Each structure stands twice: as C-alpha cells, then as structure tokens.
C-alpha cells in the first residue's frame, strides 16, 4: 500500500521540526502508542496497540529515523510485529516554509502488512492509514499551539 | 414399504435428528475427562526461516499445560509419506522454515481455549523473511525462490503421456487452435470446520483420535507412518454427523497428527476446533492450474487430437493425496468426446500458498474448463453452432462400454439422448433466436453449453500415475477400490447396518436403510444405520471414505451385498423350519414367506431369536448369530499398466449443461437467467437426495465460476481471510435451476448406480464461462468472472474497437 499527502501546519519549520523529533511528544501523538523508548541513536522501541478492521492487537515496533536533514527532511522506518501479524512501513517527510507562520508538510509512505492483518484487514488498510496520519497531525498541531501559548 | 425401496424418493432419515437439534457433530463430543484445549500459532510470512522460537513466557501462563514447537514434532514424528519421488519434508508443524501464510508454527495446550489463545501472544518467533513465489510459471523458473532446498526445484512431479498418434493427427487436421487457461485456487467452505480430539495413552504407546475426517482411509496409513506406530495404535473414530466437507475434510490429517503429538507432550487429552479464519487460510483448497491446450480439428467440427500441458499449484508442500488432482481425470481426459489422440504433460509445482487437496469435483473443473472453452472456440472459428460441434464429437450410444485413449472404461451412457434432451428442455433454438434480437438491442446476452463425463468411485491406483512405469514396478500394484459394510440382526429381530462411507451430509444412512429394507423385506425406518467409522472395530478398506462420489457405485454395493448375505442366511434357516427349499422362499413384511403360499411363513424375529437363543436348533453348517460383512470391489479397477493405461474410476456419468446469461455492460455483472442440467448417473437410488446433491454441486460450481477465489498478493500474503473477502454464493445468488435425468444403468455395479454429487462442480464453471464469452465476445480464459474482471475485459474490447475505428477512419 502506498500513499502521500500534505498538510499546512501553523508554526515555523523549526517549531514543527522540534515537535516531530521529540519522543515525549511523539508518544502522545501516535494513536495507540503505549510507550516509546529510545534504544539507540535515532532508534526507538514502541509498544503500539492498534485495531485494523476486526484485528485488534499489540505490536512491538522498532522505529528508526534516518536520512535526517534538519529541519527539512527525514525518513521514518517502522517494523512492527505482534499477534495480528506484522507491519513494515516507510515514510518520508519534508517541511517547507510557506511564510513566517506556516509550514507545509508533505509526506509519502509505503506499507506492507502480513498475517491476519493482511488476510482480514487489507480492504480497510487505506482508510486506517489515513485515519492514523490525520489524527497524528491534528495532535502535533495542538502540541505546537500549546507550546506557543505557553511561550507567550 | 415398497414405497421406500431402492430408487424411491424417501425423505432423509437423518433430518429428523438434525432438524430437532440432535445432531452429534465434532464439537459436541466429550468422550474423555480432563480434555484440554489447543490454539495454534501461525506464520504471518509466506516464506521465512525460523531463527528462534522462545516459548518460556507462554509456558508460564497459568493454565497452560504445554507448548509444542517444530523441533518436538521433528523428534516425535516423521515427515508424511507422499506419492512422488521428490524428497519433500512435510511435518504437521513448521520445522526450521515456514512456506505459507497460516502454516502452524507452535501449539499451546491449556485449560481452555481463551488461555491458549492468550498464551500464543507470549510466544516469540524470530523470522528471517525470504523472497516468496506465488505465480505458477514463475515458480518453475530456475532463478525462482526455492521452497525446498533438498528438492532442488519447485517442481514436485512431472509426467508426460502419449496416446494414439498425436503428431500425425495435428499434421493431418484442417485446423488447429491453441490457448492458455488459468483456473483459480478456490475452496470448499463447509459450515463445520475441522475438529480433532486426541488422546495419547503412554502405557500402550497408542493414540485414539476423534476427528471429522472423512477419508480416504489410505491417509490412515500416512498418519500412522508419521507417528511411527502400527495402524492398530492409531485409532480414528468419526462422529455421527459431519457438518459438510465437499472434499476438504480429507485435509484434516496433518492436524490429527499434530493433536496426537500435542496430547503426548502435554500428557492430557486435547481438543482443537478450527476457526473460520484458520480454515480459509490454512486448511486446504483446490489447486490453481495453468493449462496450455491445443486441439486439432477438421472443417466439419470433428476434433481429432488434444494436447494439454497442465501445471498444478500444490502450495507450500506437496502432500498426499496430491498430485492426484492431475491424474484423477486421467481416464476421462477426453471427456464425452471420441477423440483418439491425446498428449498430456502434467506438472505439480510448489509455491508459497496453502497446500492443496480434495475439493468437490477434484481436478474436473480444472480439466474441463479449458476443454469446453476450446470446443466453443472451435465452433466460433468454423462459424458453426457450438451444439453442432458437440454433437459431432459425442461418443455414440452403441459404443459403450467405451474404452478411452488413456485406458478408461466408460461403463454406460447415451450422450446424444441426454444432450438432445438438454437442448429440448432448455429451448436452445428459441434462445438462439432471442439472442439475435437481444444483441441487436445492444444486450449482452449469451448461451453457454458444457458436456462432461463425471467419474465416480475412484480406483486409487490412478494416483501412482505420478510415477513412471519403472518406478511403479518397484512396489506392489495398487488399485485400492473396495468398500465394506456389515448387516446384523439382534436377538429381538431388529436390524442394524454399519457403513464405512463416512457421510458428510449426503444421506447415506437413508439410502443404506432403503437398500437393506428392500433386500430384507422390512420397512427402512426400522433399520438402524451406524455411520460412525472406528478404525479398530468397523469393516473398512484403504479406499473407504466419503470422496469421489463413491457411495452410489461402491458404498451402496457393499451394503447391498452384506444385506444379500443376511438374506441368504435367513432363507437358509427358514428353509429348515418351513421345510421348503430356499428358492421357493421370499422376504416380505418382516417375514420369510413361501412363494404362492403366504400363509406359510416365519418372522425374521423368530429366525433371529433362533440363531441367537438356540444355535443347536439350526441346521448343520449354519453359524449362530446374524452378523454379515461384505467387501465389494469392481473388476475393472485395475492398477495402471506398463503402457500407462488406467481406468481411474469405476463408473462414469454424464452431465450436459445449458445456461443463459446477461452481462451488464456498465458494471460487468453476470446475471444467470436460467440454468438447465441433464444428468445420467445410471440408476438413481433416491431421486430426492440426487436432486439435493445436484443443487449443491451446481452452486459450488457457480461459486468457482463467479465468486470464489483464495487470492494472494504478489508477495504471498493471503487476502481472503473472511467471508467478506472470500465470496460464497448465498440463496440470493442461486439462479433458477432445472434438473433432468436419463438413466442408463451401470453394468458394473449391482444396483446400476453411479456417483453424481460432483458433476456440476466440473461443468458449471465451463458452461458459465462459455455463456459469458458468447454474451460479450470477449476471450474468457480465467475465473472467477467477477464484475471487476468482466468489466476490464469489456473496457479492453471497447478500446480495441475504438482503435480499429480510428484507424479505419483515416
């Protein structure tokens, strides 16, 4: 499964970047993320609990951030395994300033699933991915707004 | 009571208990105390090396009694024997590698299923994913991912056969035609899934298993060999009722062995009931097949030769009884046609899909789809009516018994009569007239015909066609074609019959009672039928079971002969009492009566009482008790010979189908307007059951034609894990079905009956494909004909027509 999209975020490139790189923010913003633990340089272990169609379950995931070009570009590698099967995903994120206040975030991703998730959830995957992504950015936007408020 | 005799439409005796909720299915059994429950961890990868399995956390879950992994299975069992020379190691649990999504990797035994399922999540498996292959022809290429290193290739079996002079026929023919066809992987979806209860008894090193397994019981020896015990240390008992099989429950045998081992390791009796997701992903299925077909034919429509290259996808492991799908129709490979020259090339290929096995129609649908499509394509090429091409080639009534080029002996038939009946009841000519009008109005209306020969009562020797004559010569000749039954009368005079045909809904109990009732002159409702098979106490043979439509030709014959033995014994005892010779006696209304003097009689009750209570009163040479077993076989079921001739079935029925369809040009949806099917299955034993069987087979065939496919993505992930993704026809999809019969009794069976439960599985996909091709003028060479597939074909055709139009314009 492949996808892409873009979203306008209220915040400078630097502000957005700092949120995206902050593990404590990420763990709050990723739907179903129960814990996110740094296990190496730019490498995290995550405990994710996500339901895809009728397949709910827990995935032990390794999330790796590579190809980092602050504050404009990075790549995300996710390898999750669990009772319902496995998920391997890759996402590329680019930030471009629109003006002094806004940033354009564009993303592309590809994901592969296996086991029960593929056998049962395949039809729903596109929808689930969209839901997870839009939910994530909604929460990131909130976090940026929150820190702006706190700063002012 | 005559009303309920052989050939009468008696209501099914089974239905009384089934309709009152008193059936005894696998999950209803509770034969032992302390039964524990099993859950199975399955591979999410189509192809991967297992680097490590850590089970300690799962083992510590309260209530867990044991965790079984591949290494234990490898030490407690041997790979299953299989009828090919390729050294494929197939165990009941993955050892070192997984080769399809859903392959069992570990087993948890726990106090209940909930605990077992939860404990599965605590098992950690480290996989090293490997490249997967699912495409049949890709798997045959040298650089394809290799599933079994020790085999050195993904080709598990390969044979070629020449009958007649094919090359000469092709040289001399007016025309030839060739095409490639693909038949999809599809399944049988019984309401009741697999279920096993197993108990290991340490003191005797023996296993007792209850399973809704239905044979072939040749697989009993396969299981015993895997468990390394003599046959009498593996006792298999089947439940009274089986919630449907359609062939697929033959594939339960790896789980029988797996549960036997699980019981041994955990030290408790274990029970496993398969869930629907497990069933769709990993039970068994039909093979998907690529066929390259070439036909040689003359101007008048006479087909003189066929060449077929058939490549079956047997999934991750070739397992018994595969590669039988390639050979089951070997003797009837030319179908109902007088084609004398035949070349066949057969391949069984392993890919990263679920392993295959018996499915209703076994091999027939894969085989007849390309042949019947080709017959229609020949008609198109010659500008002839397809019915005329079929007529030209059908075997004539005066040619029976007909020997086919590959050694089959078609026992009886009148194909022309059946076919003409079809055209008449289906109003074929009126339909053709209507079609002209409909097409002129822009409607995509089409008519499809298909004629097939339906084999029944397998001669299991055909499976050894997978070996060369030299390889076959190294072992005992195999034909495996016998069935047994026992008829007994207790001291009170009541009659029971024990059958070994493991029915799975086909009404064997009813027909058995009808046969015994008629032979012994009693009401069938007073005959008790025991259908549970127990390998330690039932009479059975390697061929026993419920497959290849073998009840009508073979199972019923064994019952008939056992009843005849009892009849002879009753007459013999009565002869002494009535001082009348046996020839002058008859059985009627529960009594032995003197012919022409019905006042003079003695009841069966009295005769049975005598044989039990007063054996000394029997005349000399008569054994006490009444308990007679008969084994039945057919003399034409010989092992394959050195010239590769084999008669792979005992009887051969005939099916002719006519279907009218309309295709929606905007959505590609196929609507079936009418379906006519004419059957010749010899003497019908119970017409009511017969029509039920035909409806079922036809609807299963409809599923294969239009809806059902076990689809995988290119990486080997399984995509049809629920009934949302794997579509089965439901009541609303079933078209108007019109069934007609002719009866040409088989000369080879005592009752003249032939099997008939599978015919439409074989013919319906081809008939519908022909109708859709006729409606759309598209080439149909792949199934199922889902709206998506048909719509794409229509689009392609439209684009091509536009191109032609544009080119023509300039």
UniProtKB/TrEMBL annotation, chain A:
Source species, domain of life: Bacteria
SUPFAM superfamilies cross-referenced by the UniProt entry: Bet v1-like
Keyword Disulfide bond: no
Gene3D superfamilies hit by this protein: 3.30.530.20
Record flagged with keyword Zinc-finger: no
PANTHER family: BLL0334 PROTEIN
Protein name (database record): Hypothetical conserved protein
From TrEMBL, chain B:
GO molecular function terms noted in the UniProt entry: iron ion binding; oxidoreductase activity
Tree of life domain: Bacteria
A Pfam family of this chain: MoCoBD_1
Gene3D superfamilies, alphabetized: Aldehyde oxidase/xanthine dehydrogenase, a/b hammerhead (3.90.1170.50), Aldehyde oxidase/xanthine dehydrogenase, molybdopterin binding domain (3.30.365.10)
Domain Aldehyde oxidase/xanthine dehydrogenase a/b hammerhead, first and last residues per copy: 20-131
Entry coiled-coil feature ranges: none
UniProt keyword annotations, A-Z: Molybdenum, Oxidoreductase, Plasmid
Listed name of the protein: Molybdopterin binding oxidoreductase large subunit
């Amino acid at each position: 499964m492949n996808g892409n999209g873009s979203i306008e975020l209220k915040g400078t490139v630097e502000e957005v970047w700092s949120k995206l790189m902050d593990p404590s923010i990420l763990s709050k913003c990723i739907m179903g993320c129960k814990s996110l633990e740094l296990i190496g340089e730019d490498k995290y272990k995550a405990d994710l609990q996500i339901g895809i169609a009728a397949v709910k379950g827990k995935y032990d995931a390794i999330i790796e951030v590579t190809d980092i070009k602050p504050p404009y570009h990075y790549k995300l590698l996710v390898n999750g395994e669990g009772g319902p099967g496995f998920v391997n995903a890759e996402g590329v994120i680019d930030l471009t300033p629109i003006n002094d206040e806004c940033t354009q975030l564009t993303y592309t991703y590809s994901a592969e699933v296996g086991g029960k998730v593929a056998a049962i959830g395949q039809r729903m995957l596109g929808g689930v991915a969209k839901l997870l992504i839009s939910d994530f950015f909604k929460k990131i936007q909130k976090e940026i707004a929150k820190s702006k408020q706190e700063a002012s | 009571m005559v009303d309920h005799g052989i050939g009468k439409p008696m209501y099914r005796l089974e239905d009384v208990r089934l309709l009152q909720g008193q059936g005894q299915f696998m999950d209803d059994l509770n034969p032992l105390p302390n039964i524990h429950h099993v859950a199975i961890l399955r591979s999410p990868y189509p192809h991967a090396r297992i680097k490590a399995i850590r089970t300690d956390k799962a083992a510590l879950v309260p209530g867990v009694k044991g965790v079984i992994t591949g290494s234990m299975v490898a030490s407690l069992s041997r790979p299953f024997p299989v009828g090919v020379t390729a050294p494929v190691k197939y165990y009941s649990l993955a050892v070192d590698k997984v080769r399809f999504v859903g392959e069992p990797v570990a087993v948890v035994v726990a106090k209940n299923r909930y605990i077992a399922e939860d404990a599965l999540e605590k098992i950690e498996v480290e996989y090293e994913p490997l490249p997967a292959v699912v495409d049949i022809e890709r798997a045959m290429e040298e650089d394809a991912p290799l599933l079994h290193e020790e085999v050195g290739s993904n080709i598990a079996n390969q044979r070629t056969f020449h009958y007649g002079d094919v090359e000469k026929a092709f040289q001399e023919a007016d025309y030839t035609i060739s095409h490639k066809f693909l038949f999809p992987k599809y399944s049988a979806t019984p309401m009741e899934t697999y279920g096993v209860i197993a108990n290991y008894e340490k003191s005797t090193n023996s296993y007792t298993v209850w399973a809704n397994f239905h044979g072939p019981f040749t697989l009993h020896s396969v299981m015993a060999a895997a468990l390394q015990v003599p046959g009498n240390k593996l006792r298999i008992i089947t439940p009274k009722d089986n919630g449907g099989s359609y062939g697929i429950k033959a594939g339960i045998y790896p789980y029988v062995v797996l549960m036997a081992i699980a019981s041994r390791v955990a030290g408790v009796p274990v029970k496993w009931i398969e869930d629907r997701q497990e069933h769709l992903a990993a039970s068994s299925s039909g093979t998907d097949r690529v066929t390259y077909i070439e036909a040689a034919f003359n101007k008048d429509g006479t087909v003189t030769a066929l060449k077929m290259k058939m490549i079956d996808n047997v999934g991750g492991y070739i397992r018994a009884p595969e590669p039988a799908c390639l050979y089951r129709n070997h003797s009837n490979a030319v179908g109902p046609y007088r084609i004398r020259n035949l070349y066949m090339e057969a391949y069984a290929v392993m890919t990263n899909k679920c392993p295959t096995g018996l499915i209703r129609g076994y091999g027939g649908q894969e085989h007849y789809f390309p042949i019947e499509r080709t017959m229609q394509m020949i008609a198109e090429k010659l500008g002839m009516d397809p019915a005329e091409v079929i007529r030209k080639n059908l075997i004539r009534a005066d040619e029976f018994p007909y020997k086919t080029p590959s050694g089959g002996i078609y026992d009886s038939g009148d194909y022309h009569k059946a076919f003409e009946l079809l055209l008449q009841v289906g109003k074929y000519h009126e339909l053709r007239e209507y079609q002209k009008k409909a097409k002129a109005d822009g409607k995509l209306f089409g008519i499809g015909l298909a004629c097939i020969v339906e084999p029944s009562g397998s001669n299991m020797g055909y499976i050894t066609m997978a070996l060369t004559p030299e390889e076959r010569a190294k072992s005992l000749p195999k034909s495996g074609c016998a069935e047994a039954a026992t008829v007994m009368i207790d001291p009170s005079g009541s009659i029971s019959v024990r059958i070994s045909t493991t029915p799975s809904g086909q009404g064997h109990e009813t027909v058995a009672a009808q046969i015994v009732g008629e032979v012994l002159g009693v009401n069938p409702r007073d005959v008790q039928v025991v259908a549970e098979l127990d390998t330690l106490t039932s009479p059975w043979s390697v061929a026993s079971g419920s497959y290849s439509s073998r009840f009508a030709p073979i199972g019923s014959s064994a019952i008939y002969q056992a009843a005849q033995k009892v009849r002879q014994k009753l007459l013999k005892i009565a002869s002494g009492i009535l001082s009348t010779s046996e020839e002058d006696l008859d059985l009627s209304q529960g009594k032995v009566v003197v012919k022409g003097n019905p006042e003079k009689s003695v009841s069966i009750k009295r005769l049975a009482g005598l044989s039990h209570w007063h054996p000394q009163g029997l005349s000399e040479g008569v054994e006490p008790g009444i308990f007679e077993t008969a084994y039945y076989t057919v003399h034409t079921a010989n092992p394959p010979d050195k010239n590769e001739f084999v008669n792979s079935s005992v009887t051969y029925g005939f099916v002719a189908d006519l279907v009218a369809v309309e295709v929606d040009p905007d959505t590609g949806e196929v609507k079936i307007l009418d379906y006519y099917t004419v059957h010749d299955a010899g003497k019908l034993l119970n017409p009511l059951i017969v029509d039920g069987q035909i409806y079922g087979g036809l609807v299963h065939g409809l599923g294969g034609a239009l809806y059902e496919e076990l689809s995988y993505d290119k990486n080997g992930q399984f995509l049809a894990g629920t009934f949302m993704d794997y579509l089965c026809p439901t009541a609303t999809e079933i078209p108007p079905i019109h069934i007609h019969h002719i009866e040409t009794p088989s000369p080879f069976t005592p009752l003249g009956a032939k099997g008939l439960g599978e015919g439409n599985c074989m013919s319906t996909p081809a008939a519908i494909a022909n109708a859709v091709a006729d409606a759309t003028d598209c080439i149909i060479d792949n199934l199922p004909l889902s709206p998506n597939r048909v719509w794409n074909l229509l689009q392609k055709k439209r684009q091509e027509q536009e191109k032609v139009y544009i080119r023509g314009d300039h």
